[in-house]
Amino acid sequence: TRTYASEATGATGGKLVVNFVLPHESVMAKREVNQVDMSAVSGDLGVLADHVPTIEQLKPGVIDFISDSGSQKYFVSGGFAIMNPNSVLNINAVEAFKLEDIDPQAVAANLAESQRLVASAKDEITKEAAVIEVELYETLQSALAAKS
After folding, report:
1. Is residue 37 within 8 Å of 63, Cβ to Cβ?
2. Residues 6+ apart with CB under 8 A from 76
């Protein structure tokens, strides 16, 4: 039987429990937050406790963990978010970096280099790799601009 958010048990006291892992480390384990905002292939979404169970493929972008003590933002290159019926959200990402630790000047320099590579690519494979880099750096630059 499928349950919906209005039928969920609320066993976590209104909090969302987050497990956020990378291949080489656990960033968060059983951390209680109020809300998680993220970018998925299906669109941007905000997740609260008792959210309908879902599996989302993450696209490059910011994951914002909002708790009583404030907001903590990470930039992820991709991954998956799995919302379970018991208000537990599991996020598996390939790589993640605290948004505050990213140097905007380095992003701008890497974006310019990637754009140069797109323009000067001599074969399709090199060009496509550079296009992916451009998209990633543009997304990262946009996330940094929104932060300030």
Report:
1. yes
2. 58, 60, 61, 62, 63, 93, 94, 95, 96
Q: Which two tokens stand for residue 33?
A: 């937050």
pTM, to two decimals: 0.79
Calculated CA dihedral for residues 8, 11, 13, 15, nearest 10 degrees: -70
**Helix (H, G, I), strand (E, B), or coil: what is residue 68?**
coil
Over the stretch 51-81, which tens digit does the pLDDT of each residue have? 999 999 999 899 999 999 999 999 998 999 9
Tell whether the torsion through CA atoms of 83, 72, 60 and 101 is positive or negative: negative
CB count in 10 Å sphere of residue 87: 24
* CA nearest to 18, candidates 44, 36, 4, 42: 36
Q: How far is residue 99 from each of residues 28, 83, 102, 109, 141, measured CA to CA in Å?
A: 16, 23, 6, 17, 11
**Phi/psi at 123 (5° precision):** -145, 165
Average pLDDT, integer, range 48-52: 92
